[in-house]
Structures are given as C-alpha cells and as structure tokens.
Design brief:
65 residues
C-alpha cells in the first residue's frame, strides 16, 4: 500500500482484497499454507496474500485510477 495514492477508497479496496485472498487462498497461498509449518507458514501466507492484493490494487489504479 506504500505505492498507492492514499485515500480511504484505495485503503478499503486493499483491505477487502487482502481478506478475500486470505479466505479463498488461491494456488500458491494454499500450497504454502500446507507445506510451511508453524509461525513462518502463517507469516509467509499473509505476505503472499498482501503481494496478491497489492498487484490487484495496482492493476485497478492503472486502469481505473
């Protein structure tokens, strides 16, 4: 979110995307969740979810922002 122009709309979109990706867990996220055990697995899961959400927000900003 550091590269996103700050507004409450982009913050809300980023938060919603983060939660959706965390719940749905697309391919690399579900694989990491199953293969990496312990606290590192939880942290890496959230980091990859954040990267996915950031990519989608950047895409939305490029086309609609």
């Amino acid at each position: 979110m550091l590269t996103v122009p700050f507004s409450w709309q982009w913050a809300l979109i980023g938060f919603i995307l983060f939660r959706v990706f965390a719940i749905v867990e697309p391919y690399p996220i579900c694989w990491l969740d199953k293969k990496v055990q312990g606290g590192l697995g939880i942290m890496i899961d959230d980091i990859v979810v954040g990267i996915f959400a950031a990519m989608v927000v950047q895409f939305l900003i490029y086309y609609y922002g």
